[in-house]
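Data deposition worksheet. Section B asks for the primary sequence of the deposited chain exactly as it was used as input, without tags or linkers unless they were present during the calculation. Section C holds the resulting structure in token form. Section D is free text for depositor observations; keep each observation to a single sentence. Incomplete worksheets are returned to the depositor.
Section A, Depositor: J.P.
Section B:
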Amino acid sequence: MYLYPAFFFTFEETFIMPKGLFFSLSLFLLLALFPLSRLFSQTGYSVSGRVLDSKTKESLAFVNIVINQSTYGGTTDIDGRFRFSFNESIKSLKLSYVGYESLTFQVENKTQGLVIYLDQKEIELQEVEILPGINPAHRIISNALDNRDLNDPEKQKSFSYTMYEKTVFTIDADTSADGSFVDTTGGPGMIGISLDVQSEMDSIQQDSVLIDSATRLIETLISQQYLFLMENVTKRKFLAPDRSYNDVVATKMSGFKDPIFVFLSTQIQSFSFYNPFISIFQSSYVNPISSGSLGKYFFKIEDTTYVDHDTVFIISFRPRKGTNFDGLKGTISISSHKWGIQNVIAEPASQGGLRIKIQQMYDLVDGENWFPVQLNTDVIFNNLRIGKYKAIGSGRSYIRDIILNPNLVRNEFNHLDIEVDKDAAKRSEEYWDQYRIDTLTSRDRRTYEVLDSIGEAENFDKMAKTFQTLLTGRIPWGPIDFDINRVIGYNYYEGLILGLGIHTNDRFSKWFKVGGFYQYSFGISTNKYGADVSFLLNRRNDVSIDAAYSFDLIESGGVCFFDDKTSLGSTLAGNWRRLLIKKLDRTQSASLGFKFRMMKYLLFGVGLSRQFKKTTTPNLATYEGNATILDDEFLFTEVTAGFKWAYKEKFLQTIETKMSLGTKYPTVWLQYTRGIKGFLGGEFDYNKVDLKIRKTFRLKYLGDFSFQLNAGYVDQPVPACNLYNGHGSYRMFTLFAPNSFATMRMNEFLSNGYASLYLYHDFKYLLFKGKKWFHPEFALSQNIGFGWLEHKERYAYFQDETKEMNLGYYETGLLINNLVNLKIYTIGIGAFYRWGPYSFDKVGDNFAYKVSVIFPF
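Section C:
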């Protein structure tokens, strides 16, 4: 711990504040004072303990403490603990904390392990007018902004550290929602029904007894153990500008042997408070210490302290009245030493089902550079109750062994951001004790003992693996997986589809998989079937070989890239367009493919395929003398080579699975296909190039902007089934399908070369904040397409009217998402309008009305 001379001053600002606003502000204006800079030289007397909220029993971080009315004092650490030494007998501690009543605590015989409670105070501030002048807090924030790159740990040339993390889930008995039966009849029971009323009263009393018994059981259980306990030890290396590698060397989860949920602790909060956006549980919030924040946040100096020659400013922050953005509220301590952040307490300014608070504490490394040393996260799940109690979560991360500017080289890093060591789940207690801050409590040990025994009996690992497999669209059963996407399906052309798909899984073999499927399409009375086999040669670098044979129906004029997969995840992401497809070709296909990763961020795929297609309409006209021959059966032999480039894409690699953590850069797909005539019966020579680029930009105060660019070109006249159909998704009323033309009729256009741009801007709730239970989110969409068709005469019989969109296709849409929030997904509505050269004369025909269904994952 550190000590500092206890000199203080406060700045009083004259402003208008609505009556009662201070009560709400006091819930988040938590004072963050400068940590103690050095141990006091005289160590004859000492005192230690912890400071808690008297009502919630929550630890209070950075509470100001003064010893014996002297000029020396200190602060509690991020867990509310303190330990001081002094040169004379310690008789009293004076505690002060923003939003709490000051307290002078008399120290008697006991000086170690004290527990001190502070009471929250409720103060109503009257409205006062803000007078002209410069807010002095702005000078401090501006200095912190100017020195942001100097103090940002991820702007260092390199660093390494070891982090110990401990996460628990339990219930909060102080947040229970008690309820009681109230007789509202207003008088005696009527003749003939008094017995029924008494019977119901007896039933209610019996239920009350059962509820009380269950409550006592829950309270007894929770007093002895947690619902869940997880620990991790991670060694991290960082090399500027953005190379990072986290080696999880030890992991332990109550009830589980396989660290399948290790990624949870990596996604809780941002590593430091210097990024433009602060991530908390997968949501992003505008950092108050970022460009433009002075106009969006209200700052106020709450206190000031001095440490040697440095000054520490404790500043509260919240979004300004009248603003509407994803912001934070809390307090931040900024030192005049390099104007670096010393500690911060923050929570989302607007919270719903989750109430989240984060804390970060920084210390000087090598006496010069600020670096985070502890990260805390506390969560209350308001909508998740166990009995009558709310579930809560608490995460603590302690950073140690910090080395600045170690000699690191690029080849020490790869595309894996997080990797779990193969022995991480097998570490001994002696190994763990090297990294734990404190030894395990009896409650910790009992949690492991009870849940490990239950987990082994109930096979929690199998259940977790099943859940993970379900997200990929498969249901595991022993050594095989059932393919959910093959069980039931529907589209406009085939109608109802029923079937079965199976594949072997890791229980059968970790490097070899074989499977197949059978389906029946009732709308066209057609059987579909297939089989495939794959060999995973190198999991770390995604090296695999696969072969497949199938008789299936494939969209006419569709585009498919080498890594495309139809899965439950793609459906939940909004891939509803396949339900609307009107034209599919019966296709008998045999293929061989090889995939591998190269240069970290490039995934390559090469393949050879032979396809026999029978189309529903004549796809190509050929001429022999004066005769015109219309064909509807074709044989293609293709060699394909493509890549997916996701620059700086990061992955989490556990012992058995690999998960993408995404990239902040555009993702690019490029694929080249060569049609070969005469090889394996192929009937056409041609070259085909397909391109797709996708990116989402997070814009401060404006929401999220996404674009997708698609383009393709075929250089020879080939059957229409291998050209491009325009990618429409029209029905007058239907589900919204992103990255498609909402007003374009299915197969309305045909092109051998095209370019389409899909623009989507999600304002979230920035345009309309709404109420507690009603948060509509507005989004705008603009889609633009161009297409060209050469040798048009050879496609004259393809359909009643073959159209090309060389003049430009335009449509604009407005969506109002999140009108209905069903927790698992949200529902909204929208409308698109078709305009420009291809608009219809009848205005109503240019509209398409949509229902948006959005899943949060």
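Section D:
The two ends are 42 Å apart (CA to CA).
Confidence is low (pLDDT under 50) at residues 1-43, 124-131, 175-207.
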